[in-house]
Design goal:
By secondary structure, the protein is mainly α. It is about 75% helix and about 0% strand.
Length: about 130
C-alpha cells in the first residue's frame, strides 16, 4: 500500500520549489518570470501565500489530518493559477513549459493522493477524526 502522505508531501515540495524559483526570477529580473502585478493581486504575496499553505500542509501531515488535506488542496489550487492548463495559451509557453508540466504533474499527484487516501480510510477512522 503506497504512503499517501509521502506522495503528497513530495508533490507539495515540487510546487514550493517551482514557485520559489519563479519568485526568485521575478526579483532578479531573469526572464521568463511572472509579471510584477496581476489585475487582482500582487504576484509575490500570492506566491508567498501559496508556498506557505504548502509548507503548512507538509508540517501538519499533508494527507494524514483534515487540516493537512485542506491545506494541500488549497496549495494545489493556488499553484494551478500559476501552472494550470491556461498556461498552454500563454505567449511565453515555449519558455515556461518545463515548470508548467512539472506543476501540473505535481498537482495531479497531490489530488490523486488525497482521493486515494480518503478512499483507503475506513469509516471508523473518519468518524474518530470527527470526534
Amino acid at each position: 500500500m503506497p504512503n499517501h502522505n509521502q506522495t503528497s508531501t513530495a508533490a507539495l515540495s515540487v510546487l514550493i520549489i517551482l514557485q520559489l524559483v519563479m519568485l526568485t526570477a521575478l526579483y532578479a529580473g531573469v526572464a521568463p518570470h511572472p509579471p510584477v502585478a496581476t489585475p487582482l493581486f500582487g504576484i509575490a504575496p500570492f506566491l508567498g501565500a501559496s508556498m506557505g499553505a504548502a509548507a503548512a500542509a507538509i508540517v501538519l501531515g499533508s494527507n494524514s489530518s483534515r487540516a493537512g488535506r485542506v491545506l494541500s488542496l488549497a496549495a494545489t489550487v493556488m499553484a494551478l493559477i500559476s501552472f494550470g492548463p491556461q498556461k498552454y495559451f500563454d505567449a511565453q509557453f515555449g519558455l515556461i513549459w518545463p515548470a508548467v508540466i512539472a506543476g501540473q504533474i505535481a498537482s495531479l499527484a497531490v489530488v490523486a493522493s488525497l482521493v486515494s487516501g480518503l478512499r483507503s480510510e475506513s469509516p471508523a477512522q473518519m468518524k474518530g477524526q470527527a470526534a
